[in-house]
Design brief:
By secondary structure, the protein is an all-alpha fold. It is built from twelve helices and no strands. The longest helix is centred in the last third of the chain and has 59 residues. It starts with 6 loop residues before the first helix and ends with a helix.
Length: about 375
C-alpha cells in the first residue's frame, strides 16, 4: 500500500512548490530582459551602421564608380597586357579615356560658341523676318494686332546681344563646378588604377580564405559579372557611335544647324537605356521646327521612329547578345532607381548593375537547387543503408 505523506512532509512539499514557481518566474523574467536587451542592441547597431553609411555615402559612391570603371576597362587592359607590361597597358587605356572628352569638347564647344554669337548678332534680322511672315499670314496678323507678337520678338532680339556676357558668366560658373569636381574624378581614376593594377590578385586573395567549393562558385560569379559589365560597356559605346553617326548623316541631308554637337548629344543620350534615344530625337525635332517646317520635322520624326525600331530589334540584340539578358521591365525599374540614387551616372550603370544582380541571383538559385538534390540523394542513401 502507498503511504500518505505525513503532515510535516506535506508542509515541506507545499513550501517548496512556491519557491520553485518563484524561481521559474525569476528565470523567465531574466530571459525576457536578455531578449529585450539583445533586440535593443541589434536595433542600435543597425541604426549606427545606417548612419555611418550615410556619413560615408560620398566615398562609398566614389568607390562603387571606381569599381565599375575598373571592371569596364579590364577587358582592354587585359588585351594590351599581352603585349606590354600591365602598367603601360593601364596608362595607354587611361590616355584614350582622357582624350575622349577632350576630343568631344573640341568638336562641340567651338561650333556652339560661334553659332551662339552669330545668332545673337543676327537676332534683329530674324525678328524682322518673323514680322514680315506674321504680316503675310491672316491668322497671325490678327494675333499681331491683338498682342503685338512681332514687337515683343524684336524687343527681345535687340536685348539678346547684351545677354551673351551673362551667358558667358553662366558658362564660367559651370566650368567652376567642373573644376570643383576634378578632385572626385582624380580620386575615382586613382582607385580604378589600383584595382586594375591588382588584376585578378584582388579576387584571388579574397577567395583564398573561402572553402574550395564556395571559392569556385564565387570565382565563377565574379568572372561572369566582369564579362557582362565589360561587354555591355563596349556594346553601349558602339551602339552610341552608330546612333550619332547615322543621325549626323540625316541632319546633314536635312540641313539642320548644329548637327555636330547634336549628333554628339544623341550619342551620349543613347547611352541611357530606353529613354535616352527618345529624348535626343525630341531635342533634334525641336531644332528642325526652325529649319524647314514641316518637311524637315516630318522626315526627322519618321527617321527617328524607324531607327529606334531597328536599334531595338537588330542593332542592340546583335551587340548585347553576349553581355546582358535583362527583361525590359527590370531595365526600366533599374534606370529609375539608379537615376534617383546617383543621377545620370546611376542611369548609365543601372543595366550592368541589374545584370550583375541577376547573375548572383541565378547562381544562388542554382546553389539551392544543387543543395536540395544532394539532400534527396543523402536521404535515399541513408534509407538504403538502414534497409
Amino acid at each position: 500500500m502507498r503511504r500518505c505523506p505525513s503532515g510535516r512532509r506535506r508542509a515541506e512539499i507545499q513550501g517548496a512548490e512556491p519557491s520553485a514557481a518563484a524561481a521559474n518566474v525569476q528565470r523567465m523574467a531574466a530571459a525576457s530582459w536578455r531578449v529585450v536587451l539583445r533586440i535593443v542592441l541589434i536595433i542600435v547597431a543597425v541604426v549606427l551602421c545606417l548612419y555611418l553609411l550615410y556619413l560615408l555615402r560620398r566615398p562609398i559612391g566614389l568607390l562603387l564608380i571606381a569599381t565599375f570603371i575598373a571592371v569596364a576597362l579590364s577587358a582592354p587592359v587585359n588585351y594590351f597586357d599581352r603585349y606590354m607590361r600591365r602598367g603601360f597597358a593601364i596608362a595607354l587605356v587611361y590616355l584614350g579615356l582622357l582624350l575622349l572628352p577632350v576630343g568631344l569638347g573640341a568638336l562641340v564647344i567651338p561650333p556652339v560658341v560661334n553659332s551662339i554669337e552669330t545668332f545673337a548678332q543676327n537676332a534683329p534680322q530674324y525678328a524682322s523676318d518673323a514680322r514680315d511672315y506674321i504680316e503675310k499670314n491672316k491668322t497671325l496678323r490678327g494675333l499681331q494686332d491683338k498682342y503685338d507678337i512681332a514687337g515683343q520678338i524684336e524687343k527681345k532680339a535687340q536685348d539678346l546681344p547684351s545677354k551673351v556676357g551673362d551667358a558667358a558668366s553662366v558658362l564660367g560658373d559651370i566650368g567652376l563646378g567642373l573644376v570643383n569636381s576634378l578632385f572626385s574624378l582624380v580620386t575615382i581614376l586613382i582607385l580604378a588604377a589600383f584595382m586594375l593594377g591588382g588584376g585578378r590578385g584582388w579576387v584571388d586573395g579574397l577567395l583564398s580564405y573561402q572553402p574550395p567549393a564556395r571559392a569556385a562558385r564565387l570565382r565563377r560569379i565574379s568572372e561572369r559579372v566582369a564579362t557582362a559589365v565589360g561587354s555591355y560597356v563596349a556594346g553601349a559605346l558602339l551602339q552610341a557611335v552608330i546612333a550619332g553617326v547615322t543621325s549626323y548623316v540625316v541632319m546633314a541631308i536635312l540641313g539642320v544647324p548644329f548637327r555636330g554637337p547634336l549628333s554628339v548629344l544623341i550619342a551620349l543620350l543613347d547611352l541611357i537605356p530606353l529613354v535616352g534615344a527618345t529624348i535626343g530625337a525630341v531635342i533634334v525635332g525641336v531644332v528642325t521646327l526652325f529649319v524647314d517646317f514641316p518637311t524637315a520635322t516630318i522626315v526627322w520624326a519618321v527617321w527617328s521612329i524607324v531607327y529606334q525600331q531597328v536599334e531595338n530589334s537588330v542593332i542592340q540584340p546583335q551587340i548585347q547578345r553576349r553581355a546582358v539578358d535583362v527583361h525590359p521591365f527590370v531595365v526600366l525599374v533599374a534606370v529609375l532607381f539608379g537615376a534617383t540614387l546617383l543621377g545620370v551616372i546611376g542611369a548609365l550603370v543601372a543595366v550592368p548593375a541589374a545584370a550583375s544582380l541577376q547573375i548572383v541571383l541565378r547562381e544562388w538559385l542554382r546553389y539551392r537547387e544543387d543543395a536540395t538534390i544532394m539532400e534527396g540523394v543523402d536521404d535515399v542513401e541513408a534509407a538504403a543503408g538502414h534497409a
